[in-house]
Amino acid sequence: MSRPDILVPAPMRDMILGGLEPHFTLHKLYEAADREAMLRDVAERIRGIAISFRPIDKALVDRLPKLEIVANFGVGYDNVDAAYCGTKGIIVTNTPDVLTDEVADTAIALMIMTIRELPAAERWLRQGKWVSQGAFPLTRGTLRGRTLGILGLGRIGKAIAERAEAFGMAVHYHGRNRQDGVGYTYHPSLVSLAEAVDTLMLVAPGGEETRHMVGERVLEALGPQGVVINIGRGSVVNETALAEALRKGTILAAGLDVFENEPHVPQALLDLPNAVLLPHVGSASEATRNAMGQLVVDNLTGWFHHRTVLTPVAETPVS
Ligand code: NAP
């Protein structure tokens, strides 16, 4: 039997391609001199897609009549039109759980870096200012006495909450649902969460439903000691409103790992001394990215060898 044809629209880690190559015929769109010609040539045969961080939209799905599965590298899959895939019986898989602890660690690190101004303190030392000007200025912010509000108390949100408790923080949360068996304080709206806390951790997924949930109103509710940490998706935050709030002192500081138009970061944020900016590194260790990559391979081989996948997304359950 011939090996199933898999479309790889954008570069992926070598360990993923190496894991797929023995089982599938891979069509690496990014290597084609004429991508449109390659797509025209293979579209009728493609049965699976392996993708990382790039859009898989309705138009592409409609061009692939034999498509059965889209295996996404990443737990967030707002880059894939999963609802549309669901209507066509196409399975979408993601890579949950294997990255939860790594991302939670990064979120806590970013929170402390932001509140205690650690990147600026390190720059102070490297620039020789410790010698020429003396001690780094005392930070206005401290983690002591802070209350954490989590938007999106899911797998990663819960892992962040556990860590925050160990740091002595009280934890509140907002999501669409109050969760059973969870001791943290629930708020039915994001504004009421922001009013109750001074540190807001964003871990909700991207997509239309959460787009610009954090804007002027939420930032004002958070107040002048307020700190926003975004480890979820850039689209959740209105970046113009955030930059303005940081500039005016509506809130104290922000730490961002994700941006609306990655890899481009608005100049207004780059210019601010009270913003700590990371290039989407939440899960970016070799070990964790390998575990995510293995899950992409296992989902694709599982589907074509046994008609089963490990981690289908909610919109495309496998019975
Ligand atoms: P998860 O377990 O599905 O948790 C998502 C949480 O968001 C749930 O608690 C859900 O609660 C809440 N939520 C969903 N839609 C919402 C809405 N419209 N309004 C308010 N809350 C909403 O996902 P996870 O594994 O924790 O991952 C969370 C997100 O982190 C991913 O989607 C991804 O975007 C991001 N992420 C970022 C990195 C990075 O490198 N920075 C790495 C991994 C993941 P309800 O259902 O009750 O609303």
Account of the 3D structure:
With 319 residues, the chain is an alpha/beta fold. It has two domains: 5-98 and 287-306, 3-Layer(aba) Sandwich (Rossmann fold), CATH 3.40.50; 100-277, NAD(P)-binding Rossmann-like Domain (Rossmann fold, 3-Layer(aba) Sandwich), CATH 3.40.50. The protein is 36% helix and 16% strand. The protein is built from 13 helices and twelve strands. It has helices spanning 14-20, 35-42, 58-62, 82-87, 100-115, 118-126, 129-132, 155-166, 190-196, 216-222, 239-248, 267-270, 286-306; strands at 5-8, 25-28, 46-52, 69-73, 91-93, 147-151, 170-174, 185-186, 199-202, 227-230, 253-256, 275-277. The strands form two sheets. A seven-stranded parallel β-sheet has the order 8-7-6-9-10-11-12, with helices on both faces. Strands 2-1-3-4-5 form a five-stranded parallel β-sheet. Helix 4 (82-87) links the parallel strand 4 (69-73) and strand 5. It is globular. The two termini are 26 Å apart. The mean pLDDT is 98. The site of NADP nicotinamide-adenine-dinucleotide phosphate (NAP) has 28 residues, from helix 8.
